[in-house]
Amino acid sequence: MKRLYKLIARIMGENVNAINEQSSPETLKNWDSFNGLLLLDALEKEFDVKFGIEEVVDVKNVADIKRHLKKHGVKIDG
């Protein structure tokens, strides 16, 4: 999903081509707790959703973010 990957890349200071389903705090050097909170805020604003604490602590990588967005009715392409 280009829109999601662009948002993650912007928050993490990465090239969008470096983002994939397995991208995580272990694979992106700037994905620390602070940037994780910035990402959460940006995701909620961009996709007009509100994540519960259970969803937040469940996210380990980009695939998890996509799964939770889908649960909120966000259309995910690819």
Please provide the ordered H/E string of secondary-structure elements: HHHH
The stretches of 5 or more residues where confidence is low (pLDDT under 50) are none
Shape: globular
Which structural class do you get from the secondary structure elements?
mainly alpha
Strand content: under 5%
Q: How are the elements arranged and paired?
A:
Elements: H1 2-12, H2 33-47, H3 53-58, H4 62-71
Helix pairs in contact: 1-2
Structure, explained:
The chain has 78 residues and is mostly helical. The chain has a single domain (2-71), classed as Non-ribosomal Peptide Synthetase Peptidyl Carrier Protein, Chain A (Orthogonal Bundle), CATH 1.10.1200.10. 54% of the residues lie in helices and 0% in strands. It has helices spanning 2-12, 33-47, 53-58, 62-71. The termini are close together. The mean pLDDT is 95.
Quick take:
The protein is 54% helix and 0% strand. It is mainly α and 78 residues long. It has one domain: Non-ribosomal Peptide Synthetase Peptidyl Carrier Protein, Chain A, CATH 1.10.1200.10.
Brief descriptors of the model:
78 residues, mainly alpha, Non-ribosomal Peptide Synthetase Peptidyl Carrier Protein, Chain A, 4 helices
